[in-house]
Design a protein that fits this description.
It is built from eleven helices and no strands. With 317 residues, it is mainly α. It folds into two domains: 1-153, no CATH class; 155-300. It is found in: Membrane. This is Cytochrome oxidase assembly protein.
């Protein structure tokens, strides 16, 4: 189902753009551009004559709405194209559930006032949850595309140690992403004029909770890089085929790029464009890790001789 796969990859690419724009909304403090109204924007379906912040926030809502419609199309296509029990159907249904959660979390941020300059601890936790759900959503879309050619999904039975390595890698990547979301929020709300001042903010006794949590991100990122590298190495040992090799190498390259981008983000005091690049590379690392797992745990194809013997047995049965 090449056409279905291409559509799934298109939905994935579009959602990456929506996620990046959502980060731009947060980084520019435009989350309150539509006031406390949701789904309306300042009480209007299409706002007119408002501020730049309103335009930025309304654009994010409009593009998010289109993302929801694309996911509906993905589900309809999966139901029509694949039989019951097919893994692509399960991936599409999971995608639909996660994008609904994504919309509800976004609505909660607006309705509870966890936007713009709000520096509550609750906002920090919700932002971390938002990032986690975003990762799960992107992973579900990626698996939907991958499962189009793998009806049985994943074959994990009997491969417990390898599965444990991947679970650790996925969990470490989510933790790094969640702490990164909190760190980015701290950079937005408490900008520093120098690296030394930023470090002082992080270590100051009695400092804001978002600043105290911000210092955790570099350690979580390094831990995730180690865990993801272990996943790539384990995948190559378990299944050294061309697809696994390509994805493992690409994943390791992206991990290196992400570490460099993170260091530059800290050193340059988190400029908005670099924040967006940092987030985009983190999303790509997550997606590639998920796709590497899909390739590593894909059910083995039957050998031609086995298939021929099965056919003979059926004919003489």
């Amino acid at each position: 189902m090449r056409s279905f796969q291409r559509f799934a990859w298109g939905v994935l690419a579009y959602n990456l753009a929506v996620v990046a724009w959502g980060a731009f909304v947060r980084a520019t403090g435009s989350g309150a551009g539509c006031g406390s109204h949701w789904p309306l924007c300042n009480g209007e379906v299409v706002p007119r004559g408002h501020t730049v912040e309103t335009a930025i926030e309304f654009t994010h809502r409009a593009t998010s709405g289109l993302a929801l419609l694309l996911v509906v199309g993905l589900v309809v296509w999966a139901v029509r194209a694949f039989p019951r029990g097919h893994a692509a159907r399960a991936g599409a249904f999971a995608t639909a559930a996660l994008i609904v959660v994504e919309a509800l979390v976004g609505a909660g941020l607006v309705l509870f006032g966890w936007v713009a300059k709000d520096a509550s601890a609750a906002r920090g936790w919700v932002v971390a949850i938002h990032l986690t759900n975003t990762f799960l959503l992107l992973g579900a879309i990626a698996l939907t595309g991958a499962f189009a050619e793998a009806p049985r999904g994943l074959a994990i039975r009997g491969r417990g140690p390898l599965a444990a390595v991947f679970v650790l890698g996925l969990a470490a990547t989510i933790l790094a992403g969640a702490t990164g979301a909190i760190a980015a929020l701290g950079d937005t709300l408490f900008p520093a004029v120098s690296f030394a001042e930023g470090l002082r903010q992080d270590l100051e006794r009695g400092g804001h909770v978002l600043l105290r949590l911000r210092v955790l991100h570099p350690f979580a990122a390094i831990g995730a890089a180690i865990a993801v590298s272990a996943c790539a190495r384990a995948a190559l040992r378990a299944r050294p085929g061309p697809r696994v090799r390509r994805r493992a190498v690409a994943l390791l390259v992206l991990v290196g790029v992400e570490l460099v981008a993170g260091a530059a983000n800290v050193g340059l005091l988190a400029p908005v464009p670099l924040q967006l690049v940092h987030l985009l590379v983190a999303d790509l690392v997550w997606i590639l890790l998920v796709l590497l797992g899909a390739a590593t745990f894909a059910p083995a194809a039957r050998a031609p001789e086995e298939t021929r013997l099965r056919g003979v047995a059926v004919q003489h049965g």
